[in-house]
């Protein structure tokens, strides 16, 4: 058996497979059908200070090799999350990354303060890149990124991850987040996209724009992770975007991800997601690779050269 244990953020993850924020919800339905010990971590749906109802239907629209989502950060709000959901999440046999988003640095600080002392919060992921809420895309501007991250950092002793958009190819946002105290970066969120109804000629989604995810975005996510690893060799990276099979996991690790997030795949084939760690183990063992560290960032070190 190969070693899949991944140590980063001061935590030990059983394997590098992470359920990305959103499609896994708060993990409760998945926990009824699957063994959460088969994944390295669950990231919760993003939690905001107040409850949010989310966007009008339709919220999911088909796209070639993926889906456009327009959920709009629907969640029960911080207090209900803390009182009703977190005690159940704390019992999950995996690491728990709690995703948060706020409208201002103060709101983010309040969320981080209320949540970071709770059992069941191993790390906090600050979502600065949701494409589905009006006027809130903090990660358009490095100065705002710095202010939000600093605020969350000062309010919480938990390891802080920052989730950035995939649209921007430059590394200014990641640099801003890391220099403001983030321990790691999550790349990428869903990419802004749209579809048009051919009979009305109008956008299919109420907000016109949605977030494209699924296999269609894998090459973009790989490039963003590859570039970030090259620029920040020591930072923690969670590579998310379009990974839907073992090959995608291996590619994301070789590009430089410490951990690999899966969103769309949890909706399209959850059975596969919970088998991926054991598939990775088999793939590595057959090829004589005994530790996942040999894959991580291999594309930057001359590759692995196995068949
Ligand atoms: C239905 C749905 C809901 C999502 N909700 C969130 C969310 O609440 N917070 C967040 O940071 N990302 C959210 N995402 C984005 C995913 O975490 C992920 O970054 C993106 O979908 C790209 O990965 P994928 O191609 O594996 O889905 C959501 C994605 C989908 C499909």
Describe this protein's structure.
With 307 residues, the protein is an alpha/beta fold. The protein has one domain (6-51, 69-193, 215-300): Aldolase class I (TIM Barrel, Alpha-Beta Barrel). The chain contains nine helices and 14 strands. The strands form three sheets. Strands 3-4-7-8-9-10-13-14 form an eight-stranded parallel barrel, surrounded by six helices. A four-stranded antiparallel β-sheet has the order 5-6-12-11, with no helix packed on it. The mean pLDDT is 95. Residues 20-23, 45-46, 69, 71, 73, 99, 127, 130, 163, 189-190, 213-214, 217, 240-243, 262-265 line the site of flavin mononucleotide. The site of flavin mononucleotide (FMN) has 26 residues, from helix 8.
Please render the helix and strand layout as text.
Blueprint lengths: L5 E3 L2 E3 L3 E3 L8 H6 L7 E3 L16 E4 L2 E4 L8 H12 L5 E6 L4 H12 L6 E5 L14 H14 L4 E5 L7 H8 L4 E4 L3 E3 L16 E4 L4 H14 L4 E5 L5 H10 L3 E4 L1 H5 L1 H17 L21
Parallel strand pairs: 3-4, 3-14, 4-7, 7-8, 8-9, 9-10, 10-13, 13-14
Antiparallel strand pairs: 1-2, 5-6, 6-12, 11-12
Helix pairs in contact: 3-4, 4-5, 6-7
């Amino acid at each position: 058996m190969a070693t899949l244990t991944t140590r980063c953020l001061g935590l030990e993850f059983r394997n590098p497979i992470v359920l990305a924020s959103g499609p896994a919800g708060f993990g409760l339905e998945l926990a009824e059908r699957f063994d959460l010990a088969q994944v390295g971590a669950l990231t919760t749906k993003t939690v905001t200070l107040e409850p949010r109802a989310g966007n009008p239907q339709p919220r999911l629209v088909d796209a070639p090799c993926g889906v456009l989502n327009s959920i709009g950060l629907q969640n029960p709000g911080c207090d209900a999350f803390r009182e009703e959901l977190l005690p159940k999440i704390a019992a999950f046999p995996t690491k728990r990354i709690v995703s948060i988003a706020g409208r201002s640095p103060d709101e983010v600080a309040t969320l981080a303060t209320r949540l970071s002392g709770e059992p069941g919060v191993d790390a906090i992921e600050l979502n600065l890149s949701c494409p589905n809420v009006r006027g809130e895309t903090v990660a358009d501007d490095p100065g705002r990124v710095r202010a939000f991250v600093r605020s969350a950092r000062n309010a919480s002793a938990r390891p802080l991850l920052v989730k950035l958009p995939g649209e921007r190819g430059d590394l200014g946002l990641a640099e801003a987040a890391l220099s403001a105290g983030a321990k790691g970066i999550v790349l990428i969120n869903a990419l802004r996209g749209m579809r048009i109804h051919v009979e009305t000629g109008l956008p299919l989604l109420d907000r016109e724009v949605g977030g494209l995810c699924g296999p269609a975005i894998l090459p973009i996510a790989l490039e963003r992770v590859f570039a970030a690893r090259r620029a920040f060799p020591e930072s923690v990276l969670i590579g998310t975007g379009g990974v839907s099979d073992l090959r995608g996991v291996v590619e994301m690790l070789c590009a430089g991800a410490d951990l690999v997030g899966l969103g769309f795949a949890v909706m399209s084939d959850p059975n596969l997601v919970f088998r991926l760690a054991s598939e990775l183990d088999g793939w590595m063992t057959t090829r004589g690779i005994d530790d996942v560290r040999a894959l991580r960032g291999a594309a930057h070190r001359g590759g692995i050269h196995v068949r």
